[in-house]
Write a sequence for this structure.
C-alpha cells in the first residue's frame, strides 16, 4: 500500500520538515572526532514519532555526502544533497537492481554497460544519470568513509548468541571493506566468544567484561572438555585489544552501527542488548546509533535489573539526540498530504466538513506520524469496499472512532436503528 508504516527515505517525502535535522545528524556522525575512542548516540523519540524515517534520511545524506565529495565538489550543503536526491530519485532503484541481480557490472565492457543501462532505464537521459549514479556509488563503496551496519536485536530474542550475532554482523560488513587484518581481528573475538556460548548468558557476560566472573563458582555443571576450551588460548581481553588496534588504524574512516527499535524487546532482552553495547562502546572508530523511546526502554531496564533505567542509560548513551517535537500543525499537514492522494476531488462543502472533522474529532486522536498512517491505511481499506455507498468524510470519522474508541463504535453498530431514520 502507498501509505504503509514503512519509514520514508527520500527528502521529497519529508512532509514534517526533518531533513535539516537529519542532515545535521549525518554531519555529526561524519565529522565526529571523538569516535576514535568509540561513541554511542541515542536517537530518542516516542513510539511512532518517526525515528526510523530520520535514520533513513540520515543514512541517505551520509551516502550522498560521500558521493558529492567523490565527485570533487567539496563539503555538500543541504541544497546539494537534496538536488542529488532529486536527480537520482528515478534511476537509483534501477541501478541498485542491476547491481543486485548477480551481474558483474564492474566487468562489463563499456559499450555493453551503456546498452544494458539504456535497456533498463528506457531513455538516453535516464541511462546517463544511472551510469553517473553507479560510478559515484562504486567509487564510494571501494573507499568508504562511513561503513553502515544495521543490527536488529529482536531477530535473536532471548538467546545468549546475541553478542556473537552482533560481532559476526560487524565482521561481515566491515571485514570485506577494510581488509584481512580487521576481518581476522573480528574473527579472533568471535572465535573466543563462541567458546562461551554454550553457557546460558555467557556471551553477554564475556563481552561486557564479566569474563567468567562467577561462572566457575556457580552451580553450573561444566564438563572437563568445555572447561579446557574456556581456559585455553588467548584471553578475551587480548583479542579485544587486537581488534581495537586494527580499528584504530582506520584513520578518518568509521563504522556506523544502527540499532533500531530497542524498546520493542522484552525486559531481559533489552538489558542484554544495552549491556552488550556498554561493553562494545569503546571500539575505536565505531559509532552506535541507537533508536528508542526513553520512557519505554528505561522501564524495560528497570523491570529487568531493578535499577533506575534512566540512570543506567546515562552511563551508556554518550550523546542523546531528541527528535524535533511535533505539534498539531505538523500532524495536520501530514494528514492533509495523505488525504490529498486518496480524496483528490472533494467538493468545497466536503472540504469544510473535513476541517470541522479535524477540529472536533481527528486532532484528539492523531498525535504521531504512525497514528496518521494507521488511520489512512484503515480508511483506504474501508473506502475500497464502501466508498461508493458512504460519504468520504463520515467514513473517515467512523474509522477514527473504530480504531480509537471501539466501545463507542460497537455501540453505534448495535444501535443504528436509533441513529438513522
Amino acid at each position: 500500500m502507498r501509505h504503509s508504516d514503512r519509514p520514508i527515505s527520500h527528502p521529497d517525502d519529508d512532509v514534517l520538515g526533518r531533513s535539516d535535522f537529519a542532515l545535521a545528524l549525518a554531519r555529526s556522525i561524519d565529522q565526529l572526532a571523538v569516535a576514535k575512542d568509540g561513541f554511542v548516540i541515542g536517537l530518542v523519540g516516542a513510539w511512532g514519532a518517526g525515528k526510523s524515517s530520520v535514520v533513513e534520511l540520515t543514512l541517505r545524506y551520509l551516502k550522498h555526502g560521500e558521493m558529492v565529495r567523490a565527485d570533487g565538489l567539496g563539503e555538500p550543503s543541504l541544497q546539494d544533497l537534496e538536488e542529488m536526491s532529486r536527480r537520482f530519485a528515478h534511476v537509483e532503484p534501477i541501478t541498485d537492481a542491476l547491481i543486485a541481480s548477480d551481474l558483474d557490472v564492474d566487468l562489463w565492457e563499456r559499450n555493453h554497460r551503456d546498452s544494458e543501462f539504456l535497456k533498463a532505464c528506457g531513455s538516453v537521459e535516464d541511462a546517463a544519470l544511472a551510469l553517473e549514479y553507479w560510478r559515484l556509488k562504486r567509487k564510494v563503496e571501494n573507499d568508504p568513509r562511513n561503513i553502515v551496519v544495521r543490527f536488529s536485536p529482536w531477530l535473536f530474542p532471548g538467546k545468549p548468541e546475541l553478542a556473537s550475532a552482533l560481532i559476526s554482523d560487524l565482521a561481515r560488513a566491515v571485514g570485506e571493506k577494510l581488509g584481512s587484518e580487521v576481518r581476522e581481528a573480528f574473527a579472533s573475538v568471535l572465535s573466543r566468544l563462541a567458546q562461551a556460548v554454550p553457557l546460558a548468558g555467557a556471551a553477554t557476560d564475556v563481552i561486557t567484561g564479566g569474563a567468567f566472573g562467577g561462572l566457575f563458582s556457580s552451580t553450573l555443571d561444566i564438563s572437563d572438555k568445555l572447561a579446557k576450551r574456556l581456559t585455553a588460548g588467548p584471553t578475551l581481553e587480548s583479542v579485544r585489544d587486537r581488534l581495537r588496534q586494527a580499528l584504530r588504524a582506520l584513520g578518518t574512516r568509521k563504522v556506523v552501527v544502527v540499532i533500531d527499535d530497542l524498546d520493542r524487546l522484552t525486559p531481559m532482552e533489552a538489558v542484554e542488548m544495552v549491556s552488550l553495547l556498554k561493553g562494545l562502546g569503546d571500539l575505536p572508530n565505531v559509532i552506535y546509533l541507537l533508536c528508542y523511546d526513553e520512557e519505554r526502554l528505561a522501564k524495560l531496564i528497570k523491570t529487568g535489573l531493578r535499577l533506575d533505567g534512566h540512570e543506567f542509560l546515562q552511563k551508556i548513551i554518550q550523546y542523546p539526540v531528541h527528535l524535533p517535537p511535533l505539534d498539531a500543525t505538523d500532524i495536520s499537514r501530514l494528514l492533509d498530504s495523505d488525504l490529498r492522494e486518496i480524496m483528490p476531488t472533494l467538493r468545497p462543502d466536503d472540504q469544510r466538513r473535513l476541517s470541522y472533522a479535524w477540529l472536533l474529532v481527528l486532532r484528539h486522536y492523531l498525535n504521531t506520524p504512525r497514528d496518521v498512517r494507521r488511520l489512512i491505511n484503515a480508511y483506504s481499506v474501508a473506502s475500497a469496499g464502501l466508498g461508493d455507498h458512504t460519504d468520504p468524510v463520515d467514513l473517515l470519522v467512523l474509522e477514527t472512532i473504530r480504531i480509537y474508541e471501539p466501545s463507542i463504535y460497537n455501540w453505534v453498530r448495535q444501535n443504528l436503528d436509533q441513529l438513522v431514520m
About this structure: The chain has a mean pLDDT of 80.
